From TrEMBL:
Membrane protein topology class: Multi-pass membrane protein
The keyword Ribonucleoprotein appears for this protein: no
Organism for this UniProt entry: Manacus vitellinus
Keywords, in A-Z order: Membrane, Sugar transport, Transmembrane, Transmembrane helix, Transport
InterPro entries in UniProt: SCL35B1-4/HUT1
Any one GO molecular-function label of the UniProt entry: UDP-xylose transmembrane transporter activity
Protein name per UniProt: Solute carrier family 35 member B4
Amino acid sequence: CFTLLFLFHALREFPGCGNIVTFSQFLFIAVEGFIFEANFGRKSPTIPIRYYLIMVAMFFTVSVVNNYALNLNISMPLHMIFRSGSLIASMALGIIILKKRYSVSKYTSIALVSLGIFTCTFMSAKQVASDSSLNEEDGVQVFLWWLLGIAALTFALLMSARMGIFQETLYQRFGKHSKEALFYNHALPLPGFLLLAPNIYQHAVLFSQSEPFRVPVLGLTLPIMWFYLLMNVVTQY
């Protein structure tokens, strides 16, 4: 809850700051894992690196696409609700790929969740159409960007579910090593953020120019956006 609260404050000020938030989260978890899980690089991974590279490609793509969707007229509440549909995507791909079968009660639960997400998406579409009607020239463009945002969220949802299935097959083969997976899933993608460096640097400058905030208890003074970012990263555990 606190993580989402600080993320909401950051996105309210700078809606396009998702990349710097994601990079900070990845960097924090990678450093923590390098110290406590990899023992400063002295501990070899139990699962071969090549499998982590595949998982990382999917994980990095999901994170970046989810954050970029916020730039496509997708509201934060819709973003959160849409991502709650991960169970739907996991069940669908489980049936298709793993040939799983579920009880009637689970199908019913998924149907109800799907109905809720559809209703929220439909109401969001009406809101976007209502807002864009104030400027008819840009109305179609705004709505098309929103549709692209929905497509991005759907893609990220399916990719995340596929990653979960891949992870499940790895755990069946090599055993469950969640801490190790967490470290490599965040450490290996770090070079990929070089592609996003201009956007990350731009928002770092904007964050530094935000109003100063005195941190309670510690007595330190930080730009308030850096405080929001720091608290978002720390409270994700």
